[in-house]
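Researcher: Structure for this, please.
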Amino acid sequence: HIAITGEGAKAQRKPAVKLSTADLQNEARRIVWDDLTQHLKKLSSGTQIVKELGRLLIAA
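Model: Predicted structure, token format:
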């Protein structure tokens, strides 16, 4: 389960927003995309990037 919370007044925790299933799926995709792009930026050549994308595609 994914819970998104916010800090309210006097540091009281309360739900910030209730997201739909589609919104949660989009958020998960965004997190995966951000992580993937950061990982690929660490690779030095286009060949390494293509090999890594192929490896990830097979793993999926």
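Researcher: Any notable elements?
Model: The helical segments are 21-41, 46-59. The first strand starts at residue 5 and ends at 7.
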